[in-house]
Structure formats: C-alpha cells, structure tokens
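Quick one, tokens below:
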C-alpha cells in the first residue's frame, strides 16, 4: 500500500524538543559552518522544526540540483514572514516576493534583461570602468581603508546603473551610500531571530505601545530603513529625469518611451520599476565587494599566483593601457583565480531562503508545502568529493583537461532555479575589471608590523555573519609595479 506524503518522515535532523522543536539549536553566527557540520551526521538533506515551521537544509550539489533546479516549479518561492513581509512592508521587494505573485515573472524579466552580459559589457561599461578607476586611486591614497572604498565601489555602481546617480565625494559621506551601509543586516534581523508573531499571527494586532509588543516597535524601526532604500532613490530618479532626461540608466530606460518622451507609466508599472530598481541598488551593494575582499586576501598572501596573473596580463594586454572587458576571454588563468576565490568563500554562503508551493516527496522523505528551503552553498563548494582538498586555494583545479571536467562553482554561488542571481553578469564583469587592473598596476603583499615583519593575513581572520559574508580583520599593501603603470590610471 502506498503511503500518503504526510505519512512519510521529514528528512532527518537534530533531535527536537516537545513544542519548540529545534528552536534552541538555531545557529546565530556563521550558520553555513554549523549546517555543514550537522550534515556529517544527518546527511545532505536535513530538516529543522522551529516551533511549527519546517525548514529543509540542503548541503549537497545533487540535492540542490534535484530540487531547486529540476523541481523549480515547486521550490522557487520565498518564505512569507509576518515580520519582514508584512510588518516591515517588504513583501513587494523581489527578495521576499512569492513565486505565485503575478509580478514575479515581470520583475525577473525586467532584471534579467536589464543586467545581462550585453548591458554589463556595453552600455554600463563606462560606469564599471569609472568605479574601478576611483577604487584604484583610493588604494593609492590609503590601502588600509579598502573596506570603505569597496563598499563605495559596489554601491556606486549599483546607484549609477539603477538610477543614474553619481556618488558624491567624499564617497563615505554620500547620502545613498550611507543609506545602504546602515541598512546592512536589516532584513536578516527580521527573519533570523525568532518572533512569536510568525507562529501566532493574531499577535500582529497587538498595538505597538503595548509593553510586550517589542516586535512591533522593532519591525516599525526596520520598515523605516527598508522603505528609505526604495522610496528615496526612486523619488530622486524621477525628479532628476525631469531636468536631465539623457542620463542612461535602468530607471531611465523604463521611464521614457522609444521617442524619448516620458512613458506615462501606469501605477502598477511605476511600482514595478521602483521595486526592481531598488533590487539593483540593494542586491549589488555588498555581494561584489565581498568577492573582491576575498581576492585581496588570497592574492596578498599568494605571490606565485599573482606573478602568474601578471605574466598573463603582460603578455595579453601589455603595459601601456588599462585592461578592459574585451580582454576577459583571453585571460583564462585570471578567470580560474576568480572562480576559485568565489568557491573558496562564496559571498552569500547560505544563499537566500526558498520556499515550496506544494507538498513534495524526495528520496522517501516528506517535504511539506510552505517549507523554508535553505541551501548551504558553502557546504557544496567545500565538498571534498567534488573539489578535492577544498580548503586549499588552488586555481589550477579549473585549468587543463581535468579542469574542464570540474563542476563550475558558479552553478551554486549565484543561487538556483528561477531565483538564480540576475546580477551575475554585472558582478562577474566588475570583479574581473577591478582585479585585473589592480594587478596590472600593483603588486599586493601582506601588511607589516612595527618591526617590519609581514603579518599573516589568515591569522585572526574572521567572517561577517549575514546574507552576505565578508572577510574581516586583515590588511595588505599595494606597491605600484612602476611609475609608468601608475600613470595609466591618471590618463
Ligand atoms: C559576486 C556577486 C554576487 C553573488 C555571489 C550573488 C549571489 C546571489 C544569490 C546566492 C542569490 C539568491 C539566489 C537564490 O535565491 O537561489 C542572489 C539573488 C539576487 N541577486 Fe545576487 N549576487 C551577486 C551580485 C549581485 C548583483 C551585482 C546584483 C544586482 C545588481 C544582484 C541582484 C540580485 C537580486 C535582485 C537577487 C534576487 C533574485 C530573486 O529573488 O529572484 N546580485 N544573488
């Protein structure tokens, strides 16, 4: 007799407590390491119960491909959260938007078309090159401040592409750059903490002044931050386009009709534009800079890898000009280095949470409708079966005949199925341009202590917890390879 799906067991997981389930075990920091560790006991598909909600955790490429890709029709929604979606009013943002919402395919189409490779290497090329030059000049002035420089770099690209907005100097004081910097961690704080309103939705009617309604006041404060990131640049863009209609950006492309007059968008289309432009601004802000930070870390302590990249650059590009997008296909070693760095430290190690839209069965396990599905991308890119010796940074694994057989980590690092990152072409291009030109002009070495001894950047290294992680607490030096090369930056 066939069992009904609900009679099948959930995937295994750590032992649960009566009523509260696994709530006491939910890791607060570096979740990707904890889940990878649990997988050694419970296998590549696990389940947690947090009060009455099921979370499925995937830690292998096979399960991720079987479910998030092959069954994308079931696994491509986002979890509904009373705190994030409703009380902080973020349900229209693509990161929270349910796949069953009629706007979902529209948002995706707009973003995929707006951020594709042709756009990244064509109309947005001057934006990426300008941001790269600003970053490299900042490195000349003060290498120690590279984190601020990087956040301004990726924030600046997103703002220019999304709205046509030029960041103001000094960049770290720019209003919109500051807005996004201050918003870091806002959305995770609404979904990673356990709020009872998620399990007893009637609590949302408890007024904010009520002494126990801390969650209402918390959500209201976060709503202000999340709203500002979407409404304020949107208001700036519409106003700017009245006086500056030639500014090319994602926003202006939708705002004007083909004949150059305002397209008189319907209320719905104007809202879609506001939310998708907001997705470029927020989605692009920390991810690319996380990838570049990892490369700075790895390159500064790998002289041999750097020397090989520089030799490749010198033979393909020479020393008389900056590297540009047309060179990318001729620089396979550099491509392997960047790929390996993103495998070694995926910027979004836990990805973004998916959710199911119907009951499902996988390998004899029951996966309920509305389950939260998390994929531990870090665990996959550190699977020793797929990437032998996974903790070693080894770009050679992607080169030569055996390199061709190697599974591409970008299949995981940018997420899955219908939710796969629409910003990937832009991210790849900006990382390539920055790292190639950095090494064309400078050589990186670890920072030195007061006695002139090199400090091992891996010692005392830490990683930020959040949707996007970033290496913290290391320093490096950037020495110009020659005065002539440095001069190209100013040309
Ligand atoms: C190295 C850089 C980047 C990495 C590693 C990265 C990674 C990811 C990942 C893992 C997801 C979740 C996919 C899923 O749910 O399965 C995602 C979603 C997304 N990313 Fe990126 N991303 C990067 C850069 C960017 C950039 C530059 C932009 C925009 C300019 C962007 C915009 C988005 C958007 C809008 C989504 C949400 C898609 C959806 O919910 O349907 N990302 N990204």
């Amino acid at each position: 007799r066939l069992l009904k799906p609900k009679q099948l067991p959930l995937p295994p997981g750590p032992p649960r407590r009566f009523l509260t389930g696994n709530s006491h075990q939910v890791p607060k920091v570096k979740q990707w390491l904890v889940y990878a560790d649990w997988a050694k006991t419970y296998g590549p598909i696990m389940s947690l119960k947090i009060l009455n909600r099921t979370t499925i955790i995937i830690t292998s490429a096979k399960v991720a491909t079987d479910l998030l890709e092959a069954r994308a029709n079931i696994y491509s929604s986002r979890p509904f959260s009373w705190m994030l979606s409703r009380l902080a009013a973020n349900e229209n943002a693509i990161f929270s938007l349910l796949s069953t919402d009629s706007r979902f395919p529209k948002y995706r189409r707009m973003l995929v078309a707006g951020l594709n490779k042709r756009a990244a290497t064509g109309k947005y090329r001057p934006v990426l090159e300008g941001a790269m030059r600003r970053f490299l000049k900042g490195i000349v002035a003060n290498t120690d401040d590279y984190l601020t420089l990087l956040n301004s770099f990726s924030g600046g690209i997103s703002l220019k592409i999304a709205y046509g907005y030029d960041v103001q100097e000094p960049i770290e004081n720019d209003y919109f750059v500051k807005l996004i910097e201050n918003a870091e961690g806002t959305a995770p704080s609404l979904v990673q903490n356990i709020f009872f309103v998620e399990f007893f939705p009637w609590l949302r009617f408890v007024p904010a002044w009520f002494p126990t309604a801390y969650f209402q006041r918390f959500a209201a404060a976060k709503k202000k931050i999340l709203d500002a990131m979407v409404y304020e640049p949107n208001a700036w863009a519409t106003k700017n386009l009245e006086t500056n209609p030639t500014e090319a950006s994602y926003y202006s492309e939708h705002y004007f009709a083909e004949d150059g007059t305002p397209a008189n968008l319907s209320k719905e289309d104007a809202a879609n534009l506001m939310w998708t432009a907001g997705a470029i601004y927020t989605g692009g802000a920390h991810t690319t800079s996380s990838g570049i930070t990892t490369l700075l870390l790895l390159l500064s302590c790998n002289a041999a890898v750097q020397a090989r990249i520089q030799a490749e650059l010198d033979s393909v590009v020479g020393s008389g000009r900056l590297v540009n997008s047309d060179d990318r296909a001729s620089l396979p070693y550099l491509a392997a280095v960047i790929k390996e760095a993103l495998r070694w430290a995926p910027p979004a190690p836990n990805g973004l949470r998916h959710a199911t839209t119907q009951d499902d069965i996988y390998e004899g396990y029951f996966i309920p409708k509305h389950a939260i599905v998390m994929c531990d991308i870090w665990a996959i890119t550190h699977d020793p079966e797929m990437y032998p010796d996974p903790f070693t940074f080894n770009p050679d694994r992607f080169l030569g005949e055996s390199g061709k057989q190697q599974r591409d980590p970008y299949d995981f690092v940018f997420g899955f199925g219908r939710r796969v990152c629409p910003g990937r072409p832009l991210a790849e291009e900006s990382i390539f341009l920055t790292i190639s030109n950095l090494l064309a002009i400078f050589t990186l070495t670890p920072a030195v202590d007061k006695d002139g001894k090199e400090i091992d950047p891996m010692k005392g290294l830490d990683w930020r917890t959040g949707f996007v992680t970033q290496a913290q607490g290391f320093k490096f030096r950037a020495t110009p390879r020659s005065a002539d090369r440095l001069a190209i930056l100013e040309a």
